[in-house]
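ENTRY TYPE: protein
WANTED: fold as tokens:
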Amino acid sequence: MNPLIALNVSRPATRNAATVVKNFAKKQKLRGEQLTQLDNFLNDTPTVREGKIFTLLLSLQNDVGNIIVAALAFSVSPELKTNIQSYAVAVLLSPKLAQYRGDLPVQHVMNILKKHRFDMPPGIENNPADMQKITSAIQDAFTQSRSSCKKKLFASVRVMRVNESGAKVPFDLDPTQHQNLFALAQALVDGTKCRITNALCGRIAPMRDVYLQNSGTAFWTDLDRALGVMRTVANGNEDSRDAMFEELILADKALHGAVDITYRVANDVQQEVDDLIDAASADAASTPTSSDEPGPSIANDPTERHDGDQDDMS
């Protein structure tokens, strides 16, 4: 090997090169002790420099690892909670919803969140623990929405009064004092992004009908059962199903007050929710299942602890 080349490789940086690097370092606003370290580095042999660079890379790797470990654990942000609550109400009031209990409504909201992302971090679907936090937030939103819905159904036909012993008890109002269907619909959509549509009133009417028969903890279960019977009778015929809902609307008006309702067209949020529920239902219908596969069970309902089914106003 040419001794001149060997000498050039093994010696420290030349004075001119060192000056250029130091000036550059000052422009980068390195601290005084860092400039001293740089000066020592420039006077080292190439082998020592390489060793120092590799050592610093390992140190940097440790620092990055510590930063990752120290990162805050995921929590559902207020913004995400707001969106969850908004869509939970829209799903609960959707005329396309097949059942109010079980994991089906929760899955509908989850599908919407996965579509829009909102405040969900990338790759969260790969972290079961963090996904469970979102699922719990959705379940809580449905608890609140179902509870609010029952309270408004209560207020449409009953009030709390003090009895002779001084205890507050539910009191059935005279039918002439009931909220009519339009007033009840207004109460249910108040504070939401939903509009009063014919299909929405078609769902509210059976809600109140079932509520008058059982306003206790089995209300939502009984409502799901009633809707299931209607689907069985309709046997997939949408005209037959819609006719049954229209009959329930007429029955509600006859019992709680006749009222002319000017129906509105569903807004973008309602239409999006209805379309997503339709799509999910179509996917479920096209997915082959075992004939002995158990159907939805309240005993296995992941939202059972989030009941929203307490006796109202008790």
Observations:
- Confidence is low (pLDDT under 50) at residues 1-10, 290-308.
- The longest helix spans residues 128-157.
